[in-house]
Amino acid sequence: MIIDAQTRVRVARPSRDLAAAERFYVDGLGLDVQWRSTERVPGKHDLLMVGPSDGSWHFELTHDPEHPLEPTPTVDDLFVVYLGAPVEEGQVERLLAAGGTRVPAHNPYWDEYGVTVADPDGYRLVLCSRSWSR
């Protein structure tokens, strides 16, 4: 098998503003900065990697100042976090204070079992009250 539970996973997506993305995912959601570019290097992307410090996955958020890409999220591009408990309003408030926007879910399932918040680039985070079971 090529992929198992220990396989490292990176999800990469463009961002208009890495500082705004960092506020949302670190200050708002509570992820850790795993790495970031600290100086502008011509011909290279600016990078921000966030995720749980002991996790096997992370987001790589990229910005190319020389050839910027406009993020193109759809209403069904979701990052779902299964909390296994009711969504705390304080958590939602932290995400909103960190630049998020509460939005109705495209799929009503997510409104029934959670809260959907768009990040500063428009990608959607779902805090789901359900547990993940296989």
Task: Walk me through this protein's architecture.
This protein is of the alpha/beta class and 134 residues long. It is built from three helices and eight strands. The chain has helices spanning 18-28, 89-97, 108-113; strands spanning 9-14, 32-36, 46-51, 57-63, 78-82, 101-102, 114-118, 124-128. The strands form two sheets. It has a four-stranded mixed β-sheet, covered by helices on one side. Helix 1 packs antiparallel against helix 2.
- How does the helix and strand content classify structurally? alpha/beta
Number of helices: 3
Largest sheet: 4 strands, mixed
Question: In angstroms, what separates the terminal alpha carbons?
Answer: 19 Å
Report strand order across the widest sheet: 1-4-3-2
Structure summary:
With 134 residues, this protein is α/β, with parallel strands linked by helices. It is built from 3 helices and 8 strands, in the order βαββββαβαββ.
